[in-house]
Amino acid sequence: VSANANELIVLPTRAMGPDDADYAVAFAVPIATPGLSLYVSSYAAGDRNEFEFPISSRHKMLETLTVFDDVFVPIDRVFCCRRPELAGPLALTFVEYHRFTAVSYKLPLVDALVGVASEIAEMNGVARAGHIRDKLARLITYAESVRALTEAAALRGHLSDRGIAFPDPMTTNIAKYLFATQYHEAVELVQDCAGGLVVTGPGGEDWANPEIRPVLEKYFGARAAAEPRLKMMHLIADLTARDFAGYQAVLAVHAEGSVEAEKLQIIRSYDLSRASAYVRDLAGLDPRKEMR
Amino acid sequence: VSANANELIVLPTRAMGPDDADYAVAFAVPIATPGLSLYVSSYAAGDRNEFEFPISSRHKMLETLTVFDDVFVPIDRVFCCRRPELAGPLALTFVEYHRFTAVSYKLPLVDALVGVASEIAEMNGVARAGHIRDKLARLITYAESVRALTEAAALRGHLSDRGIAFPDPMTTNIAKYLFATQYHEAVELVQDCAGGLVVTGPGGEDWANPEIRPVLEKYFGARAAAEPRLKMMHLIADLTARDFAGYQAVLAVHAEGSVEAEKLQIIRSYDLSRASAYVRDLAGLDPRKEMR
Amino acid sequence: VSANANELIVLPTRAMGPDDADYAVAFAVPIATPGLSLYVSSYAAGDRNEFEFPISSRHKMLETLTVFDDVFVPIDRVFCCRRPELAGPLALTFVEYHRFTAVSYKLPLVDALVGVASEIAEMNGVARAGHIRDKLARLITYAESVRALTEAAALRGHLSDRGIAFPDPMTTNIAKYLFATQYHEAVELVQDCAGGLVVTGPGGEDWANPEIRPVLEKYFGARAAAEPRLKMMHLIADLTARDFAGYQAVLAVHAEGSVEAEKLQIIRSYDLSRASAYVRDLAGLDPRKEMR
Amino acid sequence: VSANANELIVLPTRAMGPDDADYAVAFAVPIATPGLSLYVSSYAAGDRNEFEFPISSRHKMLETLTVFDDVFVPIDRVFCCRRPELAGPLALTFVEYHRFTAVSYKLPLVDALVGVASEIAEMNGVARAGHIRDKLARLITYAESVRALTEAAALRGHLSDRGIAFPDPMTTNIAKYLFATQYHEAVELVQDCAGGLVVTGPGGEDWANPEIRPVLEKYFGARAAAEPRLKMMHLIADLTARDFAGYQAVLAVHAEGSVEAEKLQIIRSYDLSRASAYVRDLAGLDPRKEMR
């Protein structure tokens, strides 16, 4: 998203050793700095019609390859220079905040998955079917687990020595992990509730054609009229079955840290001592652990 | 558990109609009331040795078939008599509290699953293996999701008109549903970390035998000595692979309401209006829903 | 796909009763018959560049709304007219063949998912990582289970009274059910192996630009050079993260019968008698079932 | 099971290096050889009543710690002595056969899971409920996938140079992997269909008591009479919720190779060349792989 910004902040992305010293830097520069180039990725909304692309015709997400070619950075904009021992802590700090941001901004997305499944099931006339209700319950459980865990991460937050609040790392990572690992299943549940019309329905040009629209209106109505039903179908396609959808799905797995990174942080931030002492006591062992 | 109680409270267990009026009753009687018989189920700890059955040799769970044969209930112990319209609300009220109790008292159990997996992996000398860490992360996610959701159910609690606090129904049911539907997988993960020795290891009589024990000590040590390792194995067997374990597994699915009952309550207690209005707005429809 | 055909065959799609008699028809007409209109759906390859859309720039799938407005069908092209009792059998016969076709033509698709995951992991330089190998093993299991079950459905096929071979219904439906219910997870595994570059990588116009390409070649190489790696990334995007991908995902769930239809057929076509007699014998009951 | 045998065959269990030479041995000795001791594990059927333990009162599984203390092995019973280079191939050969045996002998077990779920659902009077049919379809899919894959492993078998037939390694391992990783879920589905009575029902002593049995017969009947229903419940408990059940569950994960071992063999035995060439062609790359 740097293409939309005025300033670019550069941070290390992982723990580093002495050999990585040249990369252990952090600084900020204006986007307009000479030698700095942004190569914006191909994903773009383009000239899309609103009927067919209700979200992606209005919202455009940019990704950028950012290249530094002999860029001058004034010393007062440098936060860290060739200090590999700071790289890990800096990356981690960023991650903890950023991953909490991630689960927070995903809540409307998971709400939307519940909403479209419920709406389209009703419009299709199948909202009372047992298997549809089962799928809806699972979608609600998904969305509301992520929400409750995100809230819990905030409520369990701590204040640092300098008075800066930060969310609880373990709870944040569990929220993100659940969001990420159940996203594709949630998409499947939505598509199951919606039916094949998500990808076989008529496009915006047909709908805009005054000779064709009456035919579509006649044959695509169900429990709901054709217009709201087809609009909901296209919203579902935009959310689960087109490039905007694919972008969201890959983001679920990789953005703000991959699934594997989350598992790593879950183990690191979990305090084993309680569970360990508890089971050692249950087993009749000294709760203070000694292997031999 | 009524066999351990002094008083028995009887409640309707579901919504009832006029034809069920004879069963729409609620009352309390002392266990010692004439005509009241308890047939206690067969599950019992028995004369178990502590080495092999570290939990179930000390804890005994009773289940009871309770039969009323011409029992007299004084009118002042009757809370509701032949009022089918009260059956549903009474059952539901009970359920909401009881299901919250359920997820609360399960927290030590899910902690124990994390603890034994971690301890035995270390004792087996495989704690650093990638697949073990993956399984441990999933167990932690399971246990801590249930804990965070249980806390959230309490924090989101409401006060009734009469000032009685009750936990949030949706969050309670989601906590219970997650606990119930992932319990068997958690058991599998623990068994995977532990190895086949959980069920092939030596029993308490062999261990108590002074001629055999030195052999067992020689061959069953790994990263940890044989004694703590075998004790931990038997704790895992008690928790995941014997009758106490089976009792816990069936309880996970059925006690305090079945999985299907939880799904039903999740849908009932979820307020669809937010998600519905949101997606209708995204789709370009009037957020106030009309089908045609 | 009727837009590509010369003849259109019309069949009942479900069991019917006397009230549905007017719809219990089967016949064939040329596409060019007066009164017959095809409204082709919007999914189209369009003017896509091969770099970015390696599959969907070459292959175009059409879906059609087919409308009959006072179409004359000669009596010798009518196979069944107002015979609702034939509707169910006709639909079922079609389904059994068509569902076998479905799992058969999906085999290259599931092979492709295994292939791209393996190739991109190697190109990314992570093919030896434990979690990547875990995901690859799960993808292979998915693809090869579907293949083995499809082969089994054919090998267990029967000859009808008239000598027509048909695949085994139960095995066919199990193959399709596994394919359908694990497809989205397979997509997730592929995206996990590939990384975020699947959706953030440079597009075809940048690649074609002689000033930009050297920059992309410099920075997007990993274990493999930028060109093969970016081509593989775009293949993965086409397969899992764009409209062609969404089309395949919805097809997995709904085409040739939905997941619920497959479950129904699995139960119907499974012969319970063996399992039933076996467990009744184990339980000490008369294997010939009587409830009381 | 060596306690039931006349001869003991000893084989290496994994690939070995020069340092392991002392353990790279294979031979056979009679069980009665001096210096050979078997310490049989504690799992035993004991004095169980048939009502409560319909399977485990009749079948006893033994596991043994086998200790060699200065045992003499005649040279003509030695198949391999201090040849670490043979250890891996020997272990692998054993595994391929043994894992095929495993999935073959599990078929009655998975059939039993389908059978008891179906029988008890009918006896409980809930066989037509939508969620029960869903669970039954999933159990059938589980059991019949394992069966079809086992058959496929045999049908795809090869003849070695010496004319010895062996099952296809990849298919065998996929069959075993599916059996192992879905076993606990299958147990959960059975318990869900059966209800809490699996662990709260009356035991054999109560049933044998002529004063108590009429009470049990009166109150435990449902769609089926109390006797068949309680017998089926106890069969389910024996299969899914007691020590015999736990033994089967741990065996599912670990016997004849663990889940991780199966994943390893799936990757090793899968021929990537077809999928690899296919996707390279789709991506517009030379199908003969070169990284740069």
Describe the protein in words:
Chain A is mainly α and 292 residues long. In chain A, the strands form 3 sheets. In chain A, strands 1-2-5 form a 3-stranded antiparallel β-sheet, with no helix packed on it. The first copy, chain A, has a two-stranded antiparallel sheet with strand order 3-4. The first copy, chain A, has 10 helices and 7 strands. Chain A is flat and about 70 Å long.
Keywords summarizing the entry:
homotetramer, 292 residues, mainly alpha, three-stranded antiparallel β-sheet, 7 strands, 9% strand
Give a topology summary.
The structure is a homotetramer of 292-residue chains.
Chain A: E1 7-10, E2 26-30, E3 36-40, E4 64-68, E5 78-80, H1 84-124, H2 130-155, E6 158-159, E7 165-166, H3 169-194, H4 197-200, H5 204-208, H6 213-219, H7 226-240, H8 243-254, H9 259-269, H10 273-282
Antiparallel strand pairs in A: 1-2, 2-5, 3-4, 6-7
Helix pairs in contact in A: 1-2, 1-3, 1-7, 2-3, 3-8, 3-9, 7-8
